[in-house]
């Protein structure tokens, strides 16, 4: 709709300062001729647009021209920004609407609050995908969060296996992964990840720390997650499954289906990664006759031994 496009042009110019007709046309997926007509309409409605000629020119709004947003407190703005970057809006089919609302929000903020909005994006990242489990005890989270906002050094006692170690951390940001919180911080010049539920105690130090100029929290977490997945063990199994069993198998959190191909009798042949043979032996029997192992042979033999042990246990 043209009204939506006109508003988008206004908000884009408020956020970015200067844009050419080509940049606007590419952003809004229309022709440059359409942009020129839209600019005439905006000017006729009283919007003080003007064009700067020459190299580095473009469409510009007067300095200080901005729509006003009232009634929102800074904590309310922070809470709205936390949903950006997560998959939740995309899963609900609301991502485009949310992006449009976020654009309006940022355009209406004064410069000081817009800088604070960027600080929120760099300090808390919500990753809503997978890894769900029971809620964890995170009694130290308020202290950790305060240290992140204040950019002050954090002294923690951290549970690692059966021991508790002490660490001085420069807290760069927090990541929520399902029900689990992670602290990303600097330790001896290296960026490390700590599970907040394993922090036994936390004290904020008066000293600040130097934040790496090129650090991006979402990009670091994406790379860290990819590195973790690449180090996971792999155990590939070739199976046959009926349609209903295949649908259930796709919902297994720690089973990755690599490929599928049609098989006889309406079945599907597939290759799945169970990470370990032990995990495959624990999961596959639960599907009964709906799932048949073709390879590897040692897993088939293990399943036969398991079935014989069960038969003997209940045979009497």
Automatic annotation (TrEMBL):
All copies of domain HTH deoR-type, residue ranges: 2-60
Residues spanning the signal sequence: none
Keyword line: Transcription, Transcription regulation
Family matches, as InterPro entries: CBASS_pafABC_assoc_protein, DeoR_HTH, HTH_11, PafC-like, WCX_dom, WH-like_DNA-bd_sf, WH_DNA-bd_sf, WYL_dom
Pfam families per record: HTH_11, WCX, WYL
Record-linked PROSITE patterns: HTH_DEOR_2, WYL
GO MF entries: DNA-binding transcription factor activity
Domain of life: Bacteria
Entry protein name: Transcriptional regulator
Native organism: Paenibacillus elgii
Source taxonomy: Bacteria, Bacillati, Bacillota, Bacilli, Bacillales
């Amino acid at each position: 709709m043209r009204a939506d496009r006109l508003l988008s042009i206004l908000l884009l110019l408020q956020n970015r300062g200067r844009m050419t007709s080509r940049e606007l046309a590419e952003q809004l997926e229309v022709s440059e001729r359409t942009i020129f007509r839209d600019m005439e309409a905006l000017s006729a409605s009283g919007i003080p647009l003007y064009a700067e000629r020459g190299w580095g020119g473009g469409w510009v709004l007067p300095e200080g021209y901005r729509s006003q947003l009232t009634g929102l407190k800074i904590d309310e703005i922070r809470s709205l920004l936390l949903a950006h970057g997560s998959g939740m809006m995309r899963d609900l089919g609301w991502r485009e609407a949310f992006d449009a609302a976020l654009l309006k929000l940022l355009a209406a903020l004064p410069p000081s609050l817009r800088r604070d909005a960027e600080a929120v994006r760099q300090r808390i990242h919500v990753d809503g995908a997978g890894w769900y489990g029971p809620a964890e005890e995170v009694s130290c989270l308020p202290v950790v969060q305060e240290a992140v906002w204040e950019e002050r050094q954090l002294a923690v006692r951290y549970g690692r296996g059966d021991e508790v170690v002490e660490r001085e951390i420069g807290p760069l940001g927090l990541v929520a992964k399902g029900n689990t919180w992670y602290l990303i911080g600097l330790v001896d010049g290296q960026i490390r990840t700590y599970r907040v539920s394993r922090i036994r105690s936390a004290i904020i130090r008066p000293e600040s720390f130097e934040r790496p100029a090129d650090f991006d929290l979402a990009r670091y977490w994406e790379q860290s997650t990819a590195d973790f997945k690449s180090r996971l063990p792999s155990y590939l199994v070739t199976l046959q499954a009926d349609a209903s069993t295949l649908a259930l198998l796709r919902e297994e959190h720690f089973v990755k289906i690599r490929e599928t191909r049609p098989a006889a009798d309406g079945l599907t042949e597939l290759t799945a990664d169970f990470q370990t043979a032990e995990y495959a032996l624990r999961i596959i029997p639960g599907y009964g006759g709906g799932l048949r192992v073709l390879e590897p042979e040692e897993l088939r033999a293990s399943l036969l031994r398991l079935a014989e042990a069960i038969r003997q246990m209940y045979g009497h």
